[in-house]
Structures are given as C-alpha cells and as structure tokens.
Amino acid sequence: MSRGGEMVYIPDDSDFSSFRDQCESLEGWHCRYNKAGVTVWSQGQEESCTVQKIKTRISCKDVPAETLYDVLHDTRYRKKWDSNMIETYDIGRLTVNADVGYYSWKCPSPLKNRDFVTLRSWLPLGNDYMIINYSVKHPKYPPRKDFVRAVSLQTGYLIKANGDGACILYYLTQVDPRGSLPKWVVNRVSQFVAPKVSR
Question: What region holds the START domain (predicted)?
Fold first, then answer.
C-alpha cells in the first residue's frame, strides 16, 4: 500500500494539529458563501495549476458534537445521509484509530462517476473530534473501468462542541477528481460537487 509511490504513514499529532489550524484560520482563504449559519471558503485561484482547497463551516444548533462525530464515523449509516454515495466499505484496520476504505460517488452528467481508496484516521479530544483522510494505492483494489479513480490530497472534519447540545462542523477538502478536465473545471467541480469523502 502506498501514497503516490511513497510508503503510507499514519497521521500523528502534528498532522491533526495542522489540520485544525487550517480549519480555524482565515488567512489566505476567500469567502465564497455565507448564509444561514453556513460559510464556504476557497484557497487558491481557479486559473492556477493547483487544485483548490475548499472549507465549509456549519453551525449545528441542535446536534451534540459526539452525535455528529458518530454519524460521520459510521460507514454503514452513511447511505442514509449521503445521497451522492454509490458504495462504501472498510478494507482493513491499521491501528486503533486508522483504517483503509473504499468510497464511490455519483457525479453530475456528463462527468463519469468517481471512486477513492483512502486511509482514514480519527482523533477524539474531549469535546472536539477530528477525522482526516488521504488517498492511498492498494494492490487488491486497483482502479475500476466503470469509475475514474480520484485523489483525496487531504479531506476531513473538525467537530467542535459549542455549548449545550450544539456544535460547529468544519469540512475541509482538497480533491483532484482526475480525468481529462482543465484545472479551472476541476476547481469548479471541487467547489460544488466535491465528495464528502471522509468515508
């Protein structure tokens, strides 16, 4: 199993700390939407050669942080709330807080559907929770003919308790949908149909 030719590594405390900093920082982020407790930012220019990072902050008034974490963490429950999902399943557990899994999702026409194999890691911190992932290559799960194998460069959730029975959800993603698409189209797709790929 590898990450773009490199050996796979399990995220450590510094990786989670860096992810939290990216979620909470406003520096270098451009607000694209802000309404009814939902804010969306992007980082990077649409015309640039790199794939944009997209970040969403959602205020959840009636959902405890622990409940939201359990919902996002439960792959079997995902089909109830992720209408874009085609299929998801666990491939194998690596440590007590890391596993590898498969996820496929429906793309709007005329785009071909995408799939991922990702290493997911999670970290509960008292009232806060994090789930992060990135794509890996697994010899037993090569790309399929009926999907384009997309790449999660970094995707995850930060869930922060916000008073009694409420929380704030950050969703940050940098996904390359792959396929023969210009970068500006890739970034537009990332903004509007980026998969909720934290399995």
Answer: 27-199
What is the distance of C-alpha 137 from the center of its chain? 17
pTM of structure:
0.85
pLDDT tens-digit profile of 26-78? 999 999 888 888 999 988 655 555 678 899 999 999 899 999 999 998 887 88
List the domains of the chain with CATH numbers. 13-198 (3.30.530.20)
Under 8 Å between Cβ of 88 and 199 = yes
Comparing C-alpha atoms, which of 123, 133, 126 is closest to residue 90? 133
Total Cβ atoms within 10 A of residue 52: 23
* Residue indicated by tokens 């996904």: 175
